[in-house]
Design a protein that fits this description.
Elements lengths: L26 H17 L1 H4 L2 E4 L6 E4 L2 H16 L4 E6 L7 H9 L3 E6 L4 H10 L4 E5 L8 H13 L13
Parallel strand pairs: 2-3, 2-4, 4-5
Antiparallel strand pairs: 1-3
Helix pairs in contact: 3-6
Length: 174
Amino acid sequence: MPRPGDGYRTHTTGLTHDESGFPTQKPEQVTRAIARLLEKLERHRDLIESYEAVQCDDADILIVAYGITGRSARKAVAAAREKGLRAGLLRPVTLWPFPEAALRTLAAGAKHVLVPEMNAGQLCLEVERVCGAEKIARLNRFDGEAIPPAQILEQIERLAETGGKSNGGSRRRR
């Protein structure tokens, strides 16, 4: 398929198209087209899925954060390590497809999984879907301000004090 700007006429829409390229709303054609796209994404997941793991090898507390919160979390991990706390960061770059296998592997070795995010918990729901809610801790902030590294570090310290006991998915909001 030519790219826009290559000198060929292209037409891009958000509509589902049939085999000849015309828009369709026929359920069997839409189902077939969407199933083909989903299978294609799954087949190439390893090329699309992207994440960064920072100091996760021995982490007792795994932080899962993305975007600007991922940057704060990286600093909080460094500060926690300076204090002798074994924290690590999984920073998804792509949220879909979500790095499920990496999260499952890294969370298996951690006592807690902390999910700081600047919303009401959308990422945490995905983390809970993959890992279960037992050892998940939330840090939600939705007042328009970024979560500073110190706030994440404070939560890391609280989790470290619990000695392996999680707050079971509590919805800690500030």
